[in-house]
Specification:
- The protein is built from 23 helices and five strands.
- The protein is mostly helical and 498 residues long.
- The chain has two domains: 361 residues, no CATH class; 123 residues, no CATH class.
- Strand 1, helix 20 and strand 2 form a beta-alpha-beta unit.
- Helix 2 crosses helix 20 and helix 19 crosses helix 20.
- It starts with a helix and ends with a helix.
Length: 498
């Protein structure tokens, strides 16, 4: 028991250090530019509590909204939230490993994940997928406890966290399907399914998810329609995208695999031999299913429903792989193995931390069309324009989605988002409220659709400004971007100006 307590304390300290260093890395690397548009979108939704939003279920937005309602609305706070979320997932993996492995193996399982981008680089983008990094490992931990003991407490907790995972992304049905396959392949499956445990897990999950179902029915299923739109891509394009994401997801574990080879040295070959023989052992097959089913089922959504699987779909799917590998290979995790892995982690992360101040944000957010936009500068400038024109706080903002959500985050007035091309997307306000308090519409100069909507909404009292801003960054060309600001004045604007 004392040894176990020391191990838990050391693990807690390690996770706190991980969260601090990942936050530092994110702030140093990405602090030169605005946070990703997916993050400002989560805040724009979360500040307006709803049971669902026009694109996704609500849990990620709830977390972002709750966190930033008590923490400073800054980039660093957002990166701290993302780091804590990743750290919580690693703690879940630690406890999952504790059901099957000794203390040293738990360290190995967690350290291997720290050497992947799933729980590090990619985790810094707190988008609609991000809470899956924490909910999936914890749901699986309580599910495995339920499977092994059939106790109702772990069964209920597994269901509750599965419900939260479904409230994060509908793709979490993949995790529940993987749990079902794991239970069916377990040697004591008959005892498990004869018990109340699976019924409790399923009923609690549905109870947690039920309010969102009620919302979706009343709102005419906008999130379901959005999810269905992800199956409308051309067949060849969806297949190519899925294959590319799958290969990238597997390749992302390359550094962890190399570190594992360094840590175990000459033991690696007999471990692989043992692993192959364990895969044919029916009493251990459920562990292999637990590890690979989330990935295979995710890929199956492309085969069965033409879903375009992106890297975001694969964020959480590999969390159980280190645990299963260590169990099935009978890995001899000595103190020397753990020490070598810690050296590998240090050798990878120390240079990254030292280089962080010199890394350009846009390279990290590569592939994002809005990455080079100075959305923070635009939000601040837009607020100044509004206050100078009307002498009152900015309450509502609309426009090009990335610019409008950035304004809700970076504007000192924290205005509410209006989805002006689909009013049902912002049910927290009414046309009467917008007419009363006015509206600021921010468009990219190249966004013809946004400019057309702004023109349609603009009355004879509206004002329009054009301005140009240079992208911020640590290096490279600083491109200039043009933006349009359309101001629909508040109802009392004339009275206040008198």
């Amino acid at each position: 028991m004392p040894h176990e307590r020391v191990s838990c304390l050391a693990g807690t300290a390690a996770v706190l250090l991980f969260c601090a260093l990942l936050t530092l890395f994110g702030t140093l690397t990405l602090g030169g530019g605005p946070v990703h548009a997916d993050m400002t979108e989560a805040w724009a939704w979360g500040k307006e509590f709803q049971l669902g939003y026009d694109k996704h279920p609500p849990f990620a937005a709830w977390v972002a909204g709750a966190w930033l309602s008590v923490m400073p609305r800054t980039d660093c706070s957002f990166y701290l939230l993302a780091s804590i979320n990743a750290g919580a997932g690693l703690v879940g993996v630690w406890w999952l490993a504790s059901l099957l492995l000794g203390p040293r193996d738990r360290w190995v399982a967690v350290l291997l994940l720290v050497l992947t981008p799933y729980f590090t680089f990619w985790a810094l983008k707190f988008n609609a997928n991000a809470p899956l990094l924490s909910t999936w490992p914890w749901a699986t931990y309580f599910f495995v406890r339920s499977l092994l003991t059939r106790r109702l407490g772990p069964s209920a907790l597994a269901g509750a966290i599965c419900g939260l995972a479904l409230l994060t992304k509908y793709s979490s049905v993949v995790l529940m399907a993987a749990m079902l396959l794991t239970a069916l392949s377990h040697p004591d499956r008959s005892g498990y399914f004869r018990s109340l445990a699976p019924a409790v897990t399923l009923s609690i999950a549905l109870a947690v998810f039920a309010p969102h179902i009620w919302w979706a029915v009343l709102a005419d299923f906008p999130t379901v329609k959005y999810a269905a739109s992800k199956t409308q891509y051309p067949f060849a394009m969806a297949k190519l995208h899925t294959i590319s994401a799958s290969l990238g997801g597997i390749a992302a574990g390359g550094i962890a695999l190399a570190a594992c080879r360094i840590a175990y040295g000459t033991c690696m070959r007999p471990m692989l031999t043992t692993l192959r023989s364990s895969l044919s052992d029916r009493s251990l097959a459920w562990l292999a299913v637990l590890a690979v089913a989330p990935f295979l089922l995710t890929i199956a959504t492309n085969v069965l429903a033409n879903v375009r699987v992106s890297s975001g779909f694969l964020f959480p799917v590999f969390f159980a792989v280190p645990v299963a590998f260590l169990v099935l290979s009978h890995a001899p995790s000595t103190a020397a193995v753990v020490r070598r892995l810690r050296i590998c982690v240090t050798a990878v992360w120390l240079p990254l931390l030292l280089a962080a101040p010199f890394v350009d944000q846009y390279a990290v957010w590569a592939g994002s069309p809005s990455a080079a936009e100075p959305t923070r500068d635009v939000a601040v400038a837009a607020t100044k324009i509004w206050r100078a024109a009307f002498g009152q706080p900015l309450r509502y903002v609309a426009g090009t989605r990335a610019l409008a959500t950035a304004a809700t985050f970076y504007s000192p007035d924290a205005p509410s988002l209006i989805v002006f091309d689909d009013p049902s997307g912002s049910p927290w306000t009414t046309p009467a409220q917008v007419a009363q308090h006015g509206l600021l519409i921010i468009c990219r100069a190249s966004d013809a659709g946004c400019l057309a909507h702004a023109t349609d909404m603009a009355g004879h009292d509206s004002m329009r400004y054009w301005d140009r801003f240079r992208s911020s960054g640590k290096g490279g060309a600083r491109a200039e971007h043009a933006f349009s600001f359309t101001l629909l004045p508040p109802a009392n604007a004339n009275t206040m100006s008198d």
